[in-house]
Each structure stands twice: as C-alpha cells, then as structure tokens.
Amino acid sequence: MPIFQKSVIQKHLKNLDKEKVEQAFETFRKNYSPSKIEQIKTLKEEEYQDGFLREIFVDVLGYTLRPDENYNLQREFKNQTDGKKADGAILKDENAIAVIELKSTSTKDLTKITQQAFNYKNNQPECKYIITSNFQKLRFYIDYSTEFEEFDLFFLDRERFELLYLILHKESIFSNLPIQLKKETQFHEKEISEELYKDYSHFKDKLFHNLIANHPDNDKLLLFKKSQKLLDRFLFILFAEDSGLLPPNSISRIIKRFDILKEEDAYKPIYEIFKQYFGYMNIGRPGKKESDNIPAYNGGLFYEDLLLNNLNIDDEILINDLKKLSTYDFNTEVDVNILGHIFEHSLNEIEEVTAEIEGTVSDQKRTKRKKDGVFYTPKYITTYIVANTIGKLCIDKRKELDIEEIEYDDSFLKKDKTLTVKGKKLFTTLTDYKNWLTNLKIIDPACGSGAFLNQALNFLIEEHEKIDDIIADLTNSPLRLFDTDKNILENNLFGVDINEESVEIAQLLTQLVVVEPSHS
Fold it and tell me: Which three-class secondary structure state does DSSP give residue 283?
C-alpha cells in the first residue's frame, strides 16, 4: 500500500546528489552482503538492534547514534507517559519525531508489531513517523495512516534503495520531506483525476454521438453502454502497456499501422485493427520477440461481443482522442484509485443520458449513483471493513491452526537445510492455511464500483505473500512458490449490484489491481 505517487517521487529523485546516493548504496551493499545477511538471519532481536541502527541509520542514512556528540538517534527511547520504551527514536531538539520498533527475522508478520509502534508514537507528541523492521523488511508510516512503504533489505535493488534514501535520510526526515511528498501526492491525484476525467468524458461523449449517427436504428442507451465498454478496453490497454504488461506503445503502434496501410492504398478502418487486437487480448498471441508477446487477459472484458464488433466508428474519433489519452503515464501518474474516482463520476452520466433519451429532466439531487448507492468508498473505510471482516476470519483460522504468531528459527531446519519434524509440521499447516484461503468465498451484494473488492483483493494477496515468505524460508528458496493474484480474482471474490455498469467497472478495476506492477 504505497504512500507516494510515482511521478511525485521521480521528480524528487532527480534532485538527489547522485554521488552521495552511490556511496550510500555501496555502504548498504557492504553492510547487507550475502554473507552478512546469512548471519543476520541467525541473530536474536537484542543481538542486532544496535548493529541495525548503526549499519542502516548511521552508516547509510546519515544519523548520529547516542552517545556520540550531537546525536539525533537513540536506542531504547522512553515514553513520556509510562515506563515503556521504543527500540529506537529519531530526535530533533530532544523530541522524538520518529519511533523505531524492531524484531528479529524470526518475526515474519510485521503487522503484529504495528499497533505497538503506533502506541509509542501516541506517547510522543512531536512524533510524525513510524518505522518497523524485522531486519529484513522495513516499513515506513506517516502519522496515523495505514498506508506504508515497504522495503525488503535482503533483496533491495538500486531503484528501491533510492526511494529508501529519499524518504528516510536524515535531511529528509528533519525537513519533513515525506509529509511534503504526501501532500504533493494528494494534490497530484486530485489534479490528474480532474484532467483525465475531462478527457475521458469528452472522448466517451464524442464516441457515443458518433455511434448514434452511424447506427440511428439502434437503442441509444445500449449504444451508450457499449461506448463505456469500449473505453474500458482502451483504458485497460493503456494501463497495461505503460506497466510493461503489454508491448510498449501498443495503441500508438496500431495508429501508425493504420497510417501505413492508408498510405499504401490498403485502407482498413482503424476500429477493425483494434478489434483484431481485442481478440489477441482475449486469447493471447506470441510475438516475434518476447517483448511483443500479448498475454491472454480473459477476465471477461475482452470476450467476444457481437454487437460491439458490428459497430462502425469514424477513424478520427478514435485516433484523436486515443492520442490524447496516450499522453498520460498510466504507470506513474494514474493508479487504480484515481480510475475508481473517474468511473464513479462516469456513472452519474448514465441517468443524464437516459433522461436525454426519454426527453425528461434528470434529478441532479438523485443521480443514479445516489439512487443505487454507488460510491467509490474511501480507502481508509474499506481498509477498516476488510480488517474487521476478512481479517478477523483469517485471525480466527490462524488461531485454530496455531500459526497466529510464527517465530521462525533454526529448529525448523536441519544442518543440511532439510526440514525437521517441526519444520515438516509447519509446512503442512501453512499449506492447509493456503488451501483454506484459496477456498474462501467473499461476496459483496452491493459492490458498486468495486472499492471493497479491490481492498479485499489487496488483503488476500498480502496474506498469501506472508505465508509464501515463510514457505520460501522453509524450502530454502528466495522465490515465492505460488502465483495467486489471478486465482484470487477468479475464485475468491464475487460482486453483484443493481447497477450493471457498476459491476462492469468493478470487474475492470479488480483486473487492473492484478496487472499493476506491484502485483505482477
């Protein structure tokens, strides 16, 4: 659950001193070398807490640890209201502005220590940041937000290191750069949402009226719904091509192909070329090279639609507006949450179009979204609902299987790295839990545009990842053994709604969550 918009981060990364970043990265790689990582895995919490603070926060991020002169980092910082102590704290004018809670690598689930860390924050009035870590994973929170940035220190590449350096370096924390980045993210999301919605709505309006002109005998409301579906397809392709899940610039290449055919007197309507591409999206198509492969995205959006296939659309309608939408970076500027808000606004238009067709006046105070209860619920609300429904189910099941809190240690493996009896038992129990997760059925009877289902999808992905990480340790494999994202979407999540268009949008958004780079 990232905190920051990629485009905002990229802008600030350009301002970093590249030489200092390179030096810090080399220091990090030395402190977290493969041999050192193997040692860290064997250390208990109290054995490496001081070393962790020195090797990450002092050596790499520029802090000074007490008792050195002018220190701004302290181990075991006492609460102001009781005798409890945080494992560490970043200090400014002797006040804690960030608290640090540490565990050993045997603690696999960092969510277990989140509440403890936030309790320490509550006891420090000036505290704005929370950092938790098990020496492998490091999470960074701002204020009371449930969103966090997570870094895997055992597998940290240069790109992720730059983000870690940007937000956690002493100069950044002391200047409150993370809070500034969050504000810029919120402003950027609002600005992009409004701009993209304007272009999206303009495209849909032109497309709809072009369909009416070309098919005067067809039902107008049905044509409007087909224009919505066609735009959903285009948005999916734009999102996937910018995320590296389709050949880059797929839409631009189709437009270029259209221009070439036209120049060679082999004119073919551009919609005919797009229909061919939609077919590839449904069943997949190997390319001449791997980067040109088109995977099958058969979640329903690209299933054959005879009415849609038989429509006629003017070339310039598609070309001009698709070129405009292609200028957005759907990898760094537009995320699923932004699209959710855009689609929420889009649903309002259905009643207006219906009223226009029927020659009546739409009730602006009771739009279809309001009548049918279609709202794109804010993330903090869906997070709370999921935690207290699906989350509680999972906690109860883990208690039943006696894996609520797993402290991973050497007792699970023999010296030759094969499983002990205890390790085999844990492996079997974890597999049973994964099977239970796989068979879990979750239905939203009024799914709207899919906010709850999206959060449920994210939760289940993370729950599987926690278990897969432990299984990876048991099997001595650095890679997860399971690819569950699409299986969750196909087998665990179900939604119905009185508003048919809402269901289609919910399907699209959940599919986009799966194809986002963070889940692919």
Answer: helix
In DSSP terms, which residues pair with 132 in a beta bridge?
Answer: 101, 139
Tokens read off for 325: 């939408």
In the block, which residue shows the tokens 């959006």?
301
Write the pLDDT tens digit of every residue in 324-347. 999 998 887 887 777 877 777 777
Do strands 73-78 and 129-133 pair parallel, antiparallel, or not at all (unpaired)? unpaired
Q: Evaluate the omega torsion of the peptide bond into residue 247 and state whether it is cis, within 30 degrees of 0.
A: no
For the domain made up of 6-175, give the CATH fold: tt1808, chain A (3.90.1570)
Entry pTM: 0.79
Q: Which amino acid is at 371?
A: K
Residue 446 is predicted with a pLDDT of 87
Domain boundaries along the sequence of the chain:
6-175, 184-371, 379-496
Amino acid at 396: D
Handedness of CA 412, 418, 420, 425 (dihedral sign): positive
Which residues neighbour 322 within 8 Å (Cβ) at sequence distance 6 or greater? 203, 234, 251, 255
Residue with tokens 């709202």: 375
Alpha carbons 75 and 99: distance in angstroms, whole number: 10
Residue 255 contacts residue 316 (beta carbons within 8 Å): no
What is the token pair recorded at 354?
């219906």
Helices (H), 264-373: 270-283, 306-309, 315-326, 336-358, 368-371
